[in-house]
Design goal:
GO molecular function, one term: nucleotide binding
CATH topology of the largest domain: Purple Acid Phosphatase, chain A, domain 2
Radius of gyration: 24 Å
Helix content: 25-40%
Organism: Lacticaseibacillus camelliae DSM 22697 = JCM 13995
Oligomer: single chain
Subcellular location: Cell envelope
Strand content: 25-35%
Strand order of the largest sheet: 4-3-2-1-14-15
Catalytic activity: a ribonucleoside 3'-phosphate + H2O = a ribonucleoside + phosphate; a nucleoside 2',3'-cyclic phosphate + H2O = a nucleoside 3'-phosphate + H(+)
CATH class of the largest domain: Alpha Beta
Shape: globular
Structural class: alpha/beta
Main location: other
């Protein structure tokens, strides 16, 4: 008998095949296209099928933002996920971006169970059950739900109050023997990725515990491992365990096939395979589109609402160049952050390579497609030594290759981390990429004076960075002196209401050498 395990992960609310840069797109991803492929795979399967939604569905797209922040109604989004026919879902880290209460409301609207074994509230699972047994054509399949335990490094306490995040490896080690007593097949559905090279086992990132997929694959008794979080496109055997990670925004469906043979007491896995099926050429499923049609139209209208005007050029023509030479868009975002928190130092990133900055008229569409994360702001009291250490870490973003400045490999692969390179306003600084890592900040001044290592400064960052997100060890919640709990997209809109005409200016306070 063949058991097929289908999965999506990190769809991030991209239900319709658009990135919302403009109306009426048909791009090669989306939940609606994934649904079509899932139906095709179910029809072609010669045995039972189990379908998993592997987390990070509640945040990411403008539609998800509209449902959460404008309407405060998760069902406007989850109605589409209910049309897919999932057997179960997993909690992702971005599910907490709108707070624990909103997540609980969203889970209550789903027509499939959500599993989470390692996030606890006073010792008990906070969201659904730790595992569930599914009987498929006489085969008992146990699924253990796990989520990256690194969430407290990103989320403010007001979003995760009363919760304990246990190690996925420790929790899996506890449950696996019990699950094999209860079921024929044991599957781990883990909203997390891989911390090591899948072939050599060598670390591919700092071993912080954010990703522990490789460790999970080494545990005895894992018959299949579904992963996500890193937005990688992976399928194959890792330590003999079939595993998938289907990318981002529903671009692929993960397929694990287990060939089962009967035993005296049930079934066992004889061999296994894994693959990804791209969704780009599929037609979007009409039932999924219908479920969010009214919300999609309302979102598009909301996105087109004008907020302000630009005098000058605030567009981004080349994202790599925009990280080397300050652009008016980056300076504008930092000005918004400083105005919202009453500081004169702030840092922000160009989060991806899709943002194009602002044209002559700024709409909400421009705001949410450029500032893509639901960040709030925090003010940190940092020493000059902290600031220099943060800038040195930012300087690691670049590498010289054949005389050209390029993005350092670990920031580009396996998951692009453009959001981990910050550009600051209120400081004058210079990077020299020809120098060794840790010695690249060759000039650093504040109001014309050198930044002193033992002097303290108030610096505004987004909430992710303020908590140490991106492994910025010099930042942590103990250094936060105040916060602004409004979402940055709201703060940008508020700023434009107060300043309906903004000047596109860049004072070029930072320099990256050698100049290209």
């Amino acid at each position: 008998m063949k058991l097929t395990i289908l999965s999506t992960s990190d769809t991030h609310g991209y239900i319709v095949p658009t990135n919302y840069v403009r109306r009426d797109q048909d791009l090669p991803f989306s939940l609606s296209k994934a649904k079509t492929v899932i139906d095709q795979l179910r029809k072609a399967a010669t045995g039972p099928v189990l379908t998993i939604e592997n987390g990070d569905y509640l945040q990411g797209s403008p539609l998800a933002y509209y449902a959460a922040s404008i309407k405060q109604d998760p069902q406007l989004e989850t109605a589409a996920y209910n049309r897919v026919g999932y057997d179960l879902g997993i909690v992702g880290n971005h599910e907490f971006n709108y707070g624990r209460e909103y997540l609980s409301q969203a889970i209550a609207t789903l027509n499939y169970p959500v599993l989470c074994a390692n996030i606890l509230d006073h010792g008990q699972p906070a969201f659904g059950q730790p595992y569930q047994i599914f009987e498929k054509s006489g085969v008992k399949v146990a699924v253990l739900g796990l989520t990256t335990s690194y969430i407290p490094h990103w989320e403010g306490q007001h979003h995760i109050h009363d919760l304990t995040f246990e190690s996925p490896v420790a929790v899996a080690t506890h449950w696996l023997p019990r699950l094999h007593e209860l079921a024929d097949v044991v599957v781990i559905a883990y909203h997390g990725g891989f911390e090591r090279d899948l072939e050599t086992g060598e670390p591919t990132e700092a071993l912080t515990g954010e990703n522990v997929g490789y460790q999970l694959s080494q545990l005895p008794g894992v018959d299949a491992l579904v992963t996500g979080h890193q937005h990688r496109e992976l399928a194959g055997l890792v330590n003999g365990v079939p595993t998938t990670q289907p990318g981002y925004r529903g671009a692929n469906v993960g397929v694990i096939t287990l060939n089962l043979t009967p035993t005296a007491t049930g079934w066992q896995v004889a061999d296994a395979s894994a693959r990804l099926v791209p969704t780009g050429e599929a037609k979007a499923d009409g039932h999924v589109l219908t479920a969010v049609a009214a919300t999609q139209n309302a979102t598009e209208d909301w996105l087109d609402s004008p907020l302000g005007r630009v005098q000058g050029d605030m567009t981004i023509h080349d994202p790599q160049a925009a990280r080397l030479v300050e652009t008016p868009y980056i300076e504008f975002i930092n000005k918004v952050q400083m105005a919202a928190t009453d500081t004169d130092i702030a840092g922000t990133a160009l989060f991806n390579n899709e943002g194009t900055g602002f044209g002559a008229t700024i709409t909400m569409r421009d705001v949410v497609t450029n500032y893509i994360y639901p960040n709030t702001l925090a003010v940190l009291r940092l020493s000059g030594a902290d600031i220099k250490a943060a800038l040195e870490q930012c300087a690691e973003f670049f590498t010289l290759q054949n005389g050209q400045l390029v993005v350092t490999a670990r920031f580009a692969k396996p998951k692009p981390q453009y959001y981990n390179y910050d550009m600051y306003q209120g400081l004058d600084y210079t990077f020299d990429i020809t120098k060794p890592v840790g010695q690249r900040v060759i000039q650093l001044a504040y109001h014309g004076r050198p930044v002193a290592a033992d002097q303290f400064y108030e610096v505004t960052t987004n909430s992710y960075r303020a908590a140490g997100g991106g492994n910025f060890a010099m930042f942590d919640p103990s250094k936060i002196v105040r916060e602004n709990q409004k979402d940055m997209t709201e703060l940008i809109a508020d700023y434009l209401q107060a300043h309906p005409v903004v000047q596109a200016t860049a004072d070029h306070n930072f320099t990256v050498l050698p100049k290209m």
